[in-house]
Amino acid sequence: MDYSYYPGCSLHSTGKEYGQSVEVVSRALGIKLHELDDWSCCGATSAHSTNFELSVALPARNLAIAEKRGLDVMIPCAACYNRFKSAQHSLAQDSDLKNNISKSLDDDYSGSAVIRSPIDIFHQDIGLESLKEKVVKKLKGLKPVSYYGCLWLRPPEICGFDDTENPIMLDEMLTSLGAESRNWSFKTDCCGGSLTISKTELVENMVGRLMRMAREAGANCLVTACPLCMANLDMRAHEDVQLPTFYFTELLALAMGLEGPENWFGLHNIDPVPLIKSLKLL
Amino acid sequence: MGSFLEDVNKQINGVDLQNCYHCQKCSSGCPMAAAMDFKPNEIIRMVQMGQRDLLLRSSAIWLCASCETCVTRCPNAVDIPRMIDILREMSLDAGVVPHDREVIQFHESFLGTVKRGGRVNEPIMIATYKLKTGTYLKDVVVGLKMFLKGKLSLFSPRTKNRKSIRRIFSSTAKF
Questions:
Q1: A189 closest CB neighbour out of B31, B146, B169
Q2: Which of A20, A254, A182, A196 is CA-nearest to residue B151?
Q3: CA of A50: which chain B residue's CA is closest?
Q4: pLDDT in tens, chain B (175 residues)
């Protein structure tokens, strides 16, 4: 199975362990990733907050590059995914905008690229049964809450995820790895996103609430698929409420017995190793 | 030039703000509402009432985290996040210096590195932000930890065709 691949800026820096685990797991599942040639930043929150046209043009450049290969594009970062989807939507709705933006691009933009999340690709294209067959170490005793956050899901008509208020793809994947996934009501609440740098206190409160609610649901960890959520959960929670957070791909790799998890866990701020060791998973 | 409401509606280019019937579902689900000077549905009402200056100076437009919960739950599909982005752009165009200018300084620092390298260089982005805001000591411990783990690379790869990036920035520049 072949996909185009847009890692985005975070997966080379603060979300390094996410990028590495996505690649390792994909390879083990028989997925070949073709990184987009000379890709550039999606503009994230900063572009759409300050300049609408820029926020459409930056993803459009990458979408035009992706169209040349014609494969579905895997985007592991929820923020990039949301910006790509939104740009595609705006360009489909407004032909004047499309004409204007096309002029600033090197490659032709038609809007044909299919944008996919790795959650969707692993859950739908690979399938839970095939994932289960690859498990060599069941994640017994791990009680995660799945935290989807905002940008995979909203707005629903643009994002096209399974269910906006109660998504279940991550929960089902974790269950098929043998983890005891916990239900909770905060799956889709906001972590504060990029306000973490400029409005740190607000983000600390939001993350603190998520951690407390995860504890109340009987969880011993959180699972995310977004480098922004991870940065906030991992670095903005007060010590008295902290729980370790994993990228879902780290747990896939752990259950599938792949190389890497130990190194990736070392990159976390809240050390997940004591939990993993206490469950004899490492 | 039309009224403030007409201007905003035109840019939203979708559901007009008059469709809001103030059920306050947006404000009830907003994770930032408690910190905002005006709640999301109040902002809609203020646009309707032509309260331009008050809104462009408000904290609320910069505190919105763009989580899109409001528009998702709105019974009339009023695109509040888009409205807020439009108000932010109007505020920048008008040269208003809001109380929460560090949020804008963050966006400037972020986009500055994208403009130069095609991709975000986090250490440079953070250094620029600190210079702009004077918040030199904030997050030093966390930043140092990340640096030592190799998560803040000074030499992260850049986009090779930077001419194409500069063209995008210059063709979308507003001034």
A1: B31
A2: A20
A3: B89
A4: 689 999 999 999 999 999 999 999 999 999 999 999 999 999 999 999 999 999 999 999 999 999 999 999 999 999 999 999 999 999 999 999 877 889 999 999 999 999 999 999 988 999 999 999 998 888 888 888 888 888 887 788 899 999 999 999 999 997 5
CA–CA gap between residue B7 and residue A118 (Å, rounded): 39
Q: What is the pTM of this model?
A: 0.97
Mark A236-251 as b/e (b = at least 16 C-beta within 10 Å): bbeeeebbbbbbbbbb
CA distance A9 to A194: 14
Query: Which chain B residues are closer than 8 Å to A206 by Cβ?
Result: 31
Please name the residue that has the structure tokens 């939990």. Answer: A275
pLDDT value, residue B171: 96
On whether any CB of chain A is under 8 Å from the CB of B137, the answer is no
E strands in chain A: 2-5, 32-35, 73-74, 115-116, 144-147, 221-224, 245-247
Pairwise CB contact (< 8 Å): A51 & B89: yes
DSSP structure class, residue A32: E
B135–chain A Cβ distance below 8 A for any pair: no
Q: How far is A279 from chain B (nearest CA, A)?
A: 25
Q: Would you say the ipTM is above 0.90?
A: yes
Q: Nearest-CA residue of chain A relative to B109?
A: A46
Query: For residue A262, which residues of chain B lie inside 8 Å, CB to CB?
Result: none
Residues of chain A with pLDDT under 70: none
Q: Most A CBs within 10 Å: which of B82, B146, B160, B174, as the mutation test of the A interface? A: B146
